[in-house]
């Protein structure tokens, strides 16, 4: 199987070389490739999709030795999704990508990247998955959008329970990636803009799931990468409209004899000053919330989903949900600092089950 990698980056000179080398090791494993790798078209290829403000990230990519062919795409429009889609377009239109059957997409802010993870993702696609995605534990104060909204909503609406649905490390089949590109071109402008940004992660998963099986690769240690909290507003307002739009197009069904969802919320201490800053930020972001106590989390998520199924545009529903989400994250951080690891995991699993029941119940019946 001839394989490729897409490395979207923005201002990551300290980590791009290590990620490039780790991905190259995975791509050029002879168990995965069916050609002699000479750096020529037809072998493995690494596409660097960069939108950095300075040239040092691209320079360090260029200076990293690889067995796979390297393709630098620089000066791209800013936006994770736009960069990934530009790289996918390159694979479709240039000889370096014409024989590629599977593509790894990797976060380029990862510290200590493991080639075995990327190789395992490719193995799952080689085995028939449309998409394979990393499943690593997250520290309890991270993954707020994933654990409290994205994972339980996707599971409730589609029956697909992926522990890290917004993970930046995944592999996707060429056919599924082509389907993603076609679907992206058909989106209305506001949702298209979301997919050009952080909404790409949910879009890749849910569109690929329509093409074939989704597999996960379990990893036992938390991922070491740049924190996402400073970008929470952007991530939310780009990812959640996509989540609501795509999940609202499905018909929820009660899972048959499935065990309760298990969450891995890895423990760590947070420096008090950092926690105070996070709580203050969230308090500001949740201003303007009315009736919070009347609809405890995660019922506002179910309300937003039902609104979209009834015709409300997904971006509008996401904007109304936003203050509920930020207030919930503030409550989680406030109480979570005193909770045990198992208690946090149990609380996430219980909210997961409540959201599934709420999605299966009409909004009016819950009043």
Automatic annotation (TrEMBL):
Superkingdom, natural source: Bacteria
Name used for this protein in its record: Glycosyltransferase
Organism: Actinomadura violacea
InterPro entries per the UniProt record, alphabetical: Nucleotide-diphossugar_trans (IPR029044)
Species classification: Bacteria, Bacillati, Actinomycetota, Actinomycetes, Streptosporangiales
């Amino acid at each position: 199987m001839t394989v490729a990698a897409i490395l979207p980056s923005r201002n990551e000179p300290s980590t791009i070389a290590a990620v490039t080398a780790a991905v190259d090791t995975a791509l050029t494993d002879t168990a995965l490739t069916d050609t002699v790798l000479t750096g020529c078209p037809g072998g493995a290829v690494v596409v660097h999709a960069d939108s950095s403000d300075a040239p040092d990230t691209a320079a360090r990519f260029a200076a990293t030795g690889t067995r796979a062919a390297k393709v630098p795409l620089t000066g791209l429009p800013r936006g994770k999704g736009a960069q990934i889609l530009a790289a996918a377009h390159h694979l479709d239109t240039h000889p370096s990508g014409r024989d590629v059957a599977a593509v790894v997409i990797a976060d380029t802010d990862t510290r200590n990247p493991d080639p075995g993870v990327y190789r395992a993702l490719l193995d799952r696609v080689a085995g028939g998955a449309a998409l394979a995605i990393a499943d690593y534990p997250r520290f309890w104060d991270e993954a707020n959008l994933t654990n409290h909204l994205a994972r339980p909503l996707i599971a409730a609406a589609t029956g697909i329970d992926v522990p890290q649905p917004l993970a930046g490390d995944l592999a996707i089949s060429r056919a599924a990636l082509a389907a993603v590109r076609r679907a992206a071109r058909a989106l209305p402008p506001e949702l298209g803009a979301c997919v050009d940004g952080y909404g790409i992660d949910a879009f890749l998963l849910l569109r690929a799931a329509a093409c074939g099986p989704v597999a996960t690769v379990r990893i036992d240690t938390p991922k070491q990468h740049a924190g996402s909290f400073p970008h929470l507003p952007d991530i939310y307002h780009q990812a959640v409209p996509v989540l609501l739009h795509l999940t609202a197009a499905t018909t929820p069904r009660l899972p048959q004899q499935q065990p309760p969802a298990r969450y891995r919320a890895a423990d760590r201490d947070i420096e008090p000053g950092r926690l105070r800053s996070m709580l203050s930020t969230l308090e500001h972001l949740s201003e303007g919330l009315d009736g919070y106590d009347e609809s405890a989390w995660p019922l506002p998520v179910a309300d937003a989903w039902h609104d979209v199924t009834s015709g409300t545009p997904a971006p509008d529903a996401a904007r109304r949900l936003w203050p509920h989400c930020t207030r919930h994250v503030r409550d989680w951080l406030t109480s979570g600092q005193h909770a045990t690891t198992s208690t946090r995991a149990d609380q996430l699993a219980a909210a997961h089950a409540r959201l599934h029941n709420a999605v299966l119940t009409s909004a009016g019946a819950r009043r």
